[in-house]
Amino acid sequence: MDSRWLLGFIEGEGCFSVGFIRQKGTPFGYQIKAMFIIKITESEKKVLEKIRSYLGGIGNIYFESCELNRTKGMINANDSVSFRVTHLEELEKIIGLLKKEEFVSEQKRLDFKNWVRCISILKNKKHLTKKGFLEIAYLRSKMHKRKQSNKKGFCEIKNEIEPCEIYKKFGKSCANLELNKCLLGGSE
Q1: 3-state class of 175 per DSSP?
Q2: Smallest Cα–Cα separation from 44: which of 86, 5, 82?
Q3: Which CATH number do you get for residue 107?
Q4: Above 80 in pLDDT, residue 55?
């Protein structure tokens, strides 16, 4: 295994993720969690074990059952395993390994670039400021172009902290308007 093989595998099965988890007692009501995830069918668990070993034993491997899906009639749903890295120091190891590599997928390259910036903000504790917190929310909105129903968008998060003028005036998210206007203070 080498870094080029790993990059190809990541481009197909990996995910650079930033999550907002509701948590009281945090400056803006959310804990921000950066993650690196590779998820594959459970029968291929040995591949994840080799990847984890190649990366020096960082992260953990988790089993994910699809039993609920099978009871709902999805008889071909397979159990899966995921390799997850969540500690900033360990995520930086992945960044160091991949930063010099050339991505084939333009979208995955952009996701990686935005994810790296988010981790830098977290590492430097800038996410504890409103500007840093909102920058992470904005960068996250540019990642994973497929809309996820359980993922709050930038404007939803921003409007919980400080409703922009567009939201105040029209009572709706500015998702269809320029995000930069909202990010820079909500001017119309």
Answers
A1: coil
A2: 82
A3: 3.10.28.10
A4: yes
